[in-house]
Amino acid sequence: MINDKQVLYSGMQATGNLTIGNYLGALKNWLTLNEEYECFFGVMDLHSLTVRQNPAEFRKKAKNLFILYIAAGLDPKKNCIYFQSHVSAHAELAWLLNCFTYVGELNRMTQFKDKAAKHKDNINAGLFTYPVLMAADILLYQADFVPVGKDQKQHLEITRDIAERVNAVYGDVFTVPEPFFGKAGTKIMSLQEPTQKMSKSDENPNGSIYLMDDPDTIVRKFKRAVTDSFSEIRYSEEQPGVSNLLEIYSACSGTPIADAEKEFEGRGYGEFKEAVAEAVISVLKPMQDEYARLSGEKAYIDGLIRENDEKAAYYANKTLRKVRKKMGLNEIPR
Ligand code: TYM
Predict the structure, then answer these.
(1) Which residues line ligand 1 (CB under 6 A)?
(2) Does residue 91 share a domain with residue 147?
(3) Do 80 and 29 lie in a common domain?
(4) Same domain, yes or no: 151 and 232
(5) What is the CATH number for 247?
(6) Does 125 fall in a domain?
(7) Which atom of ligand 1 has the smallest separation from the CA of 15?
């Protein structure tokens, strides 16, 4: 608890172009929860280094992500929005937790297996221990809830296992966090291959709606979206393409899926796709405008970064001191 509120923690990697999947699966829920909880949102730049980055571009991308969080509507005075790499406690706790994580557990991580298959020339140790750094992120702030998309479920499970393991050895060290999944949009699929997750690293740009896509591009991508031959607008396993579009429509417009099915009953795919595009544009446009405005406010943004880095470090170091002590590392009074 901080200021009598439960703690919420989440973040995104500063890699690639964010998609509507990142928005609907995570960011949108952060917006609805941030008043109720004491929130920390990280720009996960250390995680991004598990894949090779061009330094100049990477620096920009990480800063743009920081700005995007604010443009989406998170108040940087109320929420602690900060850079993971600016708080050294993350890397330090990750080491300590590495010593409480089994190789067998990490071997079972599906995201590791997927990424290792994709980056065969760079299966580095960071990629393997990625979930341990993620556990450190969450446990440092003694988070109660972690709002994420469904693809992060396994990482949350290992975080809980590590926390429980450390608590079993040393007593009450960490809060054991719960994942939080939204009602709709927890797994948005590619518009071109609706059985695959929409991903910022997808090679086919037509499969993803990027948060910075302009309205014409959004309309065009939805027009080309893969549907199927049933010509019926219904949410079902046999219709992954249409179901994905219904999911996106529901998450963007707030209409429950069953109501959306009724709304589009008897109407054609063309009309349906246009409505989905409009719903997405109405969510993205205000965010894009605010992002453009904030991008010009360099001094203001840098001030916020400094302020929030300090706040994050304060809470993170508090937990780190506790862990060091519990684990028996020497402390010399100074
Ligand atoms: P990342 O950057 O891959 O994704 C950020 C968030 O977006 C969600 N997401 C999706 N949700 C629905 N449909 C999709 N197609 C989709 N694609 C991505 C993800 O579930 C995530 O919530 N490991 C994390 C970053 C991280 C983190 C943490 C998160 C590092 N430390 C601590 C929470 C707490 C990740 O890779 O996110």
Answers:
(1) 9-13, 21-22, 24-26, 44, 47, 134, 137-138, 146, 148-149, 151-152, 155, 186-188, 197-198
(2) yes
(3) yes
(4) no
(5) 1.10.240.10
(6) yes
(7) 2
Atom of ligand 1 nearest to the CA of 152: 20
The interaxial angle of helices 55-71 and 269-295, nearest 10 deg, is 100
Question: Which structural domain, as residue segments, surrounds residue 70?
Answer: 6-185+298-327
| Residue among 121, 134, 118 nearest 13 (CA) | 134
DSSP code for 5:
B
Residue 44 Cα to ligand 1 midpoint, Å, equals: 10
**C-alpha–C-alpha distance, residues 185 and 29, integer Å:** 10
Q: Which atom of ligand 1 is nearest to the CA of 189?
A: 15
10-residue stretch averages of pLDDT, the chain, 334 residues long? 94 91 94 94 97 95 96 96 98 98 96 90 95 98 96 97 98 97 89 92 89 96 90 90 95 94 93 96 97 96 97 98 96 81
Roughly what angle, to the nearest 10 degrees, separates helices 125-140 and 89-98?
110
How many A from CA of 151 to the centre of ligand 1?
Answer: 7
The reply to whether 334 falls in a domain is: no
User: Rounded to the nearest whole angstrom, what is the distance from the C-alpha of residue 171 to the centroid of ligand 1?
Assistant: 30
Cα 148 to middle of ligand 1, angstroms: 6
193 part of a folded domain: no
CB 190 within 8 A of CB 197: yes
pLDDT in the model for residue 62: 96
Which residue(s) pair with 12 in the sheet? Answer: 43
**Span 63-119, pLDDT tens digits:** 999 999 999 999 999 999 999 999 999 999 999 999 999 999 999 999 999 989 988
pLDDT of residue 229: 79
As a residue count, the chain comes to 334
Catalytic annotation, residues: 115, 197, 200
* Ligand 1 atom nearest to 26, measured from its CA: 22
Counting the structural domains of the chain, the total is: 2
Nearest C-alpha to atom 24 of ligand 1 is from which residue? 12
